[in-house]
Amino acid sequence: MLTGTLARSPGENVGSYEISLGTLNAGDNYQIEFIGNELEIIPARLAEILTGGDITTPWSINPLLPNQVNILTQDGQIISYNVTWDISTIDVLKRGTYTVFGTVDLPTGILNPSGQKAVIRVVVLPKPAPSDITLSNDNFIPDPSISLQEIGFFSVIDAFDDVHTVELVPGASDNNYFEIDSNVLYWNSEEEAAGVITFTILVRVTDRDGNVFEKSFLITRNRKAIDEIEVFNTFSPNDDGINDTWGIPDLQYFRGGRV
Fold it and tell me: pLDDT value at position 246?
């Protein structure tokens, strides 16, 4: 009756391991004639990399991706290994679905002859649109000596982002009299629009995710009182560039004014 066990060289990696007699014993009356051999551990072959469903992330937030994925070998083993994702394809400031590839940290004992990558889809959710836009001042007194006259500053109310494009809607309302530059509203027109006191403008806000918000504003152009208008009593038409002409510039904003 045999007792004991054979032995082999330690190790679980791919390779050959010597098998020896170990503690095998046939008793006092027998001798064992043992012919040694080797145990060969051959590599497994990758059949498929298993990943879950889509990953969803709010706008502007980097997604939380799994640190490990399961792999299936051709002999039916399912094992988990670390994975490194390449997130350079994701733009979290733009809604949409992105395909992300990852490199699985496979041991030498698992072959990946076709160079398979882990694949997962990331869905960046839409950003909520801005909720409002305000104007710091909506009235002004025109100054004939200034071609570009500042009126007020626009502020966008948005709980999710502070980057926006603020512009006048082309061709809308009385927008042709005005200009917006760096969120500042200006009167910018050589046309006097005599007699007109109130103007309506339509302003458009566009955020980085493509949301559009529009709002109308009423702008009041106050005029000097008649008794506050300065009337010059001298001029010197000698072409020296000083007082060469005579006029009352503030009258241009009144309809029917005559001198």
Answer: 47
- Give the model's pLDDT for residue 59: 97
CATH number at residue 174: 2.60.40.60
Q: Is the pLDDT of residue 238 over 90?
A: no
* DSSP β-ladder status, 44-50 and 110-111: parallel
pLDDT tens across 61-119, in order?
999 999 999 999 999 999 999 999 999 999 999 999 999 999 999 998 899 999 999 99
CA dihedral defined by 17, 20, 24, 27, rounded to 10 degrees? 170
Structural tokens at position 136: 């710091």
Last residue in a domain, options 124, 155, 180: 124
Nearest one of 112, 90, 159, 95 to 131, comparing CA atoms:
159
Q: Are residues 140 and 220 in the same domain?
A: yes
Residue 24 φ/ψ, nearest 5 degrees? -65, 130
Closest-CA residue to 143 (of 246, 258, 230, 256)? 230
Distances (CA, A) of 101 to 56, 67, 238: 16, 13, 79
